[in-house]
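Example record for the data management plan.
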Amino acid sequence: MLERVETEVLLTLAEELHFGRTAERLRLTTSQVSRIVKSLERRVGASLFARTSRVVTLTSIGAALVADLKPHVRGMDAAVRKAVEAGRGVHGTLKVAFLGAAAGQLLLKAVALFGARHPDCGVSLHEAQVHDACARLLDGDVDVLITALPVRGVRVGPVLLSEPQILVVPRGHRLAGEAAVSREVFADHPVVQMPDTLPEETRLHRVPATTPSGRRVRLGPMANTFPEILGLVSSGQGIFPVGEHAARFYPRPDLTYIPLADAPPVQWAPVWREANETGSVRAFVQCAVQAAHDASPREAADGTHTQ
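Corresponding structural encoding:
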């Protein structure tokens, strides 16, 4: 019989195909993941993963085992959630966090709607920082997080807000007078790095490794919070791509915002741990979707409406 941690390691590694990312998602060390996999393989009597110095792949036996396990794990999780919800209903206190000013504005509207629909369930609001947002969710410190996508290893709700990316540079920077710029400028000017506590796919979505033409992006210093990012930009240590709402919520005389023509939009959505999908979480997500849908045209222009 498999222990819960063994099942989680097996299914997560089958999805990530990377020992480091698997360890990060499960809050384990890479060596712990490796030991658990080796123990499972000894028990099965065959290799479950083929690994080289660069690539991890499932063997045919490993793929079959993962396929057999997945429906059972989903069924057990669903049974537990059903029992919890039957006992709790939509009451108690829901811990909800947001990352970014636009997400915070939308969250306030969702909280008001949720309070009117579910008066027996309180909401505890938390402002997350760039460096700790995902960790707080995975550690159970918050139940729902409204954050920028992509985020892997969690349940992702409907997109609430989609906005263009713009580039923030110091006032007086040689790019400041441009009507619009391309991501190609990332190879010519250092770009402030997001903290490495964020998932790699989230960081690469905002600051890719290479420009559209294949040139290597110049990496500047790392920041842990959004105010730190703006401070580094202001002091001339780098440039940084942000969501369009930043120009409205963070207008500063020492900064200039420029349209970033070839960058994908920044999308914001509620995310939560699959194991923590309760009736309260689902009810709150429904309220967040409704709040985004009901945003007025003025609010949509301010970056608080689903697009």
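Summary line stored alongside the record: The longest strand covers residues 92-98.
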